[in-house]
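Why do we bother with holo predictions? Because pocket geometry can differ from the apo form. Keep that in mind while you read this record for GDP-alpha-D-glucose.
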Amino acid sequence: MPRLVVVSNRVAIPDASGKSSAGGLAVALREAFQRQEGLWFGWSGKVSAHPSTEPKMTDKGHVRYALMDLTATDRQEYYSGFANRALWPVMHYRIGLSEFSRADYAGYLRVNRTFARALARLIQADDLIWVHDYHLIPLAAELRVLGLANRIGYFHHIPWPAPEVIGTLPGSQDLLRAITEYDLVGVQTERDADNLRRGIIQEFDATQRTADVIVLGGRQTRVKDFPIAIDVSSFEQAACRPARHRLIQQTVASLGSRSLIIGIDRLDYSKGIPERMESFERFLISNPDQRGRVTYLQIAPTSRSEVPEYASLSRTVSETLGRINGAHGEPGWVPIHYVTSAYPRGVLAGLYRIARVGLVTPMRDGMNLVAKEYVAAQDPEDPGVLVLSKFAGAAEQLGGALIVNPNDKFEVAEAISVALHMERSERIARWRRMMDVLRRYDISWWTDAFLTELASQRKASKTRSPAPV
Ligand code: GDG
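The structure, written out:
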């Protein structure tokens, strides 16, 4: 079995107990790494004045971790600048928020090149290389320049927008070409796959060999949807455990007979948090009988606070929250509870379970794992209702949710009302439909499907010499 080499912007090294504190990718890859020997390469998250060009190696279990530090300038240009201020907004259809700078773009390319040079020295001929996320799109092209013919796959965790949207970003043509240096490109939905294939075909003289395969300059790239999943059984179990945590006990006590509506998101403008608060306000205005009978808890751990658009979002959320609570609250009832700290996964699972409504209304989202976690955590005998944005990738799979347009506050408000009044039999039927999908396509399915497809790609017989991006 070939060795698995994972590359991601941030790397989660398990702690002394063997557990990784980070969720997401670490959970997803745990199983794959148990089956095959592996290397995980990426940024340590640390900044250093004179970072080594050699990664720092740490062995844990079957996995070797290879970590690179960045300079403060690299971090600013590659991570905060191009990846998070230029690429992220465009990928989420927020062209107006995208701040392109040539210096940032040069920094993004420079870090990808530095990473490629450090990584290439660690690669063996048969390794399967799996790169993750928008920070590292040019990595395969840089590895090919160094002569690597390995099978290289890329998974894009966020949406891939329509060609006319990605085309607004300076440098997007280079990125589209660079992406064709991968053998397999995984995206979250069929819509993303279609956008990316059309983008490549429109921009270059590329041909479409089959529904999934694009050929450019004699090299073929398969572009396919692999909707990311969750570890369903571990979420079910976590949600069943007695609620020992102080926050769950306090929440249950403070709720009394009130229904709980929950939202959990990184504090990011793609998640639609102020818009959701305003939809909840619309619900209160349209349903005066519900005043004092529902509480909306929004957990939104701060993220990317060094990026100005995120600082501005934080202010907008605080203002919206203050205005709504001031206008509608009463002594003894605060309509919206808002916390910005992060909580352990077990606590989140417990909160999902006691929430009557899961309110997941991003303006645009690659998948949205919170939607899936909410469903997995429900009590099968008395499940809550998921209200889900049509612009979350998860909406393609979770047809049992109440699907809404997050731009329409009246529609979201109406869905909240329908969810709160839904009969138990309908809640169960909808929940079962969604659980069937989650169980069939769980996290093991996701890693297996991607890696099996990557392993079945023909190894490049020659490396075309791509123009370095
Ligand atoms: C990107 C894409 C795609 C949240 N608060 C806490 C906490 N979380 C966890 C959730 C969930 C994860 O963070 C968030 O995942 P999402 O999928 O909702 O969103 P992004 O972070 O934007 O992730 C997204 C994903 O990649 C995977 O491909 O679905 O579309 O944007 O697991 O539970 N976890 C803990 N404490 C918190 O307070 N422990």
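The chain is about 40% helix and 20% strand.
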